[in-house]
Amino acid sequence: MKLPLIAVSVVSLGVALGSSAVAAPPTSTKCSVVKNAAAADAVYCHAVAQNKVLLGGTADPGKCDAKLERAFTKMDGTGACPLVGDYADVRQRVVDAEAAVRAALAAGSATTPSEKSCVTRKNAEAGRYARCHASAMKAALAGKQLPEEIYKPIVFIKCEQRLETAFLKAETRETCLTTGDVADVRGLVVGAATNFRLADASPARAGGADLRGADFRAADLTSVFFPFADLRGADLAGATLLNGIVSGADFTGADLTGVALVGTRMVTTNLTNANVAGADLTLALLADADVTGADLSGVTWSQTGCPDETTSDTNGSSPESCCANLQGAVPAACSP
Prior knowledge:
Elements: H1 27-54, H2 62-76, H3 87-104, H4 113-142, H5 148-151, H6 153-173, H7 182-196, E1 295-296, E2 333-334
Parallel strand pairs: 1-2
Helix pairs in contact: 1-2, 1-3, 1-4, 3-7, 4-6, 4-7
């Protein structure tokens, strides 16, 4: 399932098929998700305030900051945050993120009512997308056992589609100074969300990070959080990624030989030319993953969610595998 303008930039989590549980999150993760959600709310709040100003009204963004500060102060007081007193830093990142979106929309050059309407519509929708993104990350980091359909890509694709639809509608109905900019704005929002997660900044929590060529050989990356990370050419041979989230990540040319990916969500992951030989994909979810040119020889398939959204134990394969269910992709090799 793909979007026309945003090919693999989908905030999707996936869920391990069956009844296997997601590992309980550490206390620091609770701090991270709460602060991240509060920061996303602040982005939307600032967007609404700045829209009022652009349309000639008055606004008090200080209310947005006060709400953010209360949320951060409350979490800092729980003792669950490894990093405290970070309100001012994150607040500045919120302001910078919202300003970056307006700059991308050429808000400063909007003079006519129609131009201003286009900017405010897109800016507000970018704020809503920030909240949607934070909600998805909160569910993932908190390890909530939600119904399977909540984790499947369709929910997160809807977030992307809503953003895309709103931008296209604005460009159709208004005079927009910028067009076709949905992917750029989305990137600004996702990048900002990554910067907000200061309370849990370990290497295993690197959503959206640039990890090209990184050396994770034999590393214990249990419950790893690498959505949208750039892992092209990375070496993860023999690593353990149990119950991880790497949806949307780019593993082009990466070494994943012998990697334990049990229960890992790999929705829309790019595995082009990756070496996945001997990996354990038990209960992993690879919906819409691209395995073109990948070496999938000797892989352990067991209740694996295949790229075409079938499952290895029910798709009629014998022995069980996803080799015939790769959504048209042609791997270098594939065998159970």
